[in-house]
Amino acid sequence: MTNNDLYKGYKGGALETLKKFEALVWCDVEIITGDAMFKGIILPRSETSDHLHIVLKLISGYNIGVAADTVKNIKIFGRKEAHYKIPEKAFPYDPVKPRVKLIGTGGTIASRLDYRTGAVIPAFTPGELYGSVPELADICNLETEKLYGVFSENMGPEQWMGVANAIGKEIEKGVQGIVIGHGTDTMHHTAAALSFMVQDSPVPIVMVGSQRSSDRPSSDAALNLMHSVKTAAESDIAEVLVCMFGPTSDDYGLLHRGTRVRKMHSSYRSTFRTIGDIPVAMVSREKITPLRTDYKKRRTDNNVKINTAFEEMVSIVYYYPNMKPDIVDSLIDNGYKGIVIAGTGLGHVNKPLYPALKRARDNNIAVYMTVQTLWGYVQMYVYDTGRDMMELGVVPTANMLPEVAYVKLGWALGQTSDIEEVKKIMLTPINGEITEREPSNGYLIYQGGIPEVEAFISKHRK
Ligand code: ASP
């Protein structure tokens, strides 16, 4: 091992401090500063990082940078190079178990820390995923394929089509369930796209991700994977679902309908919520408990409708006070064919936008209204603003979520350029993207919200 590896990435003051206390990368240490003590493993640093900090992986799994010039002492307890790579394992075959296909697209669930750059990179193949969660063999025969290896901000129409076509092939081959490993950030966009591109599936299509990578003790990767594979193998829900933590604890996962789900927290593991409805089911390692009965049921045939036609020239405009019409005008000038507005309240924008909206209609551009509040319906008959906008051709989309309306509009414009036909497609629900009413208990109940709020309040209520 070269000297470079022993101090990998450290330079300047940080390197001097390590040398002074004879500490090396991968040493298990206690660092004492003027006012604190940190216990953990010294991590390598990237070539581009600063020379001021020593980075530790704490026992909690979090990384922390300790300012080198505050270090008073470093106690060393040992040294062991960590290997976060998990070996690929061939899945054991059991003829009586169902066949499930895991299609990987990337994201944190397929990631580990790259200590050269310090970033989380997509590095696990689905085979490695199995290597880290051998319990999956108790559930099914798992076949894996790495279709993409990207963070989900890089997923878009091209990849949605790729995933939809891959699903079609697998169903034709006769798999009993499909799991899609995906980054969480845009999982709800892909879930919506698949809900329109893949219709009447005979088997469950379960999207899964994780908020914390598998090298962290608080990772949700393994449990989410077990829940999703169990759902794909055993449940009778033949829909596009998102399977992620229900409450913040690891009590159970929730299965959300692909058109009603949204990522709602940037870091909680329980980030996905069904909006304006109740989730389809709960899933634990032992069982799947439906929370509703109106889902499409599993069938034994291999028939599925794959329709991936998609118009990419669609945009979503999040209205803000004082928005200027040039935002809408630039979309018109750049050849966009569809615009989804996330309006305020019941679905409003300011008056200065009206002429641009009229211009959009005159240019045969489909303009749809959704609400920023996420919960509740667009209601454009209540105020003058709404009525005026409908006269300008803006179409209300009931309780379709803004991202879902964006994806559906791209898909609808992929089917036809006839604006009236597009309207028919947009307003006819395909899989729960518009519902007749929002259940009064659908706000948070069944989603870990209420019990947690109660527990929190009871601690403070004396
Ligand atoms: N940035 C990641 C992604 O969406 C986050 C995750 O996977 O949870 O790909």
State the CATH topology of the largest domain: Rossmann fold
Domains counted in the coordinates: how many?
A: 3
Low-confidence runs of at least 5 consecutive residues: 113-123
**What fraction, in percent, of the residue positions are helical?**
25-40%
Provide the CATH architecture of the largest domain. 3-Layer(aba) Sandwich
The radius of gyration over CA amounts to 25 Å
What does the main sheet amount to? 8 strands, mixed
What is the CATH H-level superfamily of the largest domain? L-asparaginase, N-terminal domain
Shape: globular
Report strand %.
15-25%
The number of distinct β-strands equals 23
- The top-level CATH class of the largest domain is Alpha Beta
What does this structure look like?
The protein is an alpha/beta fold. The protein has three domains: 77 residues, SH3 type barrels; 208 residues, Rossmann fold; 114 residues, Rossmann fold (3-Layer(aba) Sandwich), CATH 3.40.50.40. Helix content is 26%, strand content 23%. The chain has twelve helices and 23 strands. The strands form six sheets. The chain has an eight-stranded mixed beta sheet with strand order 9-6-10-12-13-14-17-18, sandwiched between helices. Strand 12, helix 6 and strand 13 form a beta-alpha-beta unit. The chain is globular. 45% of the residues are buried. About 2% of the residues have low confidence. The site of aspartic acid has 9 residues, from loops.
Summarize the helices and strands and which ones pair or pack:
Layout: H1 3-6, H2 12-20, E1 27-33, E2 37-42, E3 53-58, E4 63-67, E5 71-79, E6 99-104, E7 111-114, E8 119-122, H3 126-132, E9 141-146, H4 157-173, E10 177-181, H5 187-197, E11 198-199, E12 205-208, H6 221-234, E13 240-245, E14 253-257, E15 261-263, E16 272-274, E17 281-283, E18 288-290, E19 305-306, E20 314-318, H7 326-333, E21 338-343, H8 354-362, E22 366-371, H9 384-391, E23 395-396, H10 402-415, H11 419-427, H12 449-460
Parallel strand pairs: 6-9, 6-10, 10-12, 12-13, 20-21, 21-22, 22-23
Antiparallel strand pairs: 1-2, 1-5, 2-3, 3-4, 7-8, 11-19, 13-14, 14-17, 15-16, 17-18
Helix pairs in contact: 4-5, 5-10, 7-8, 10-11
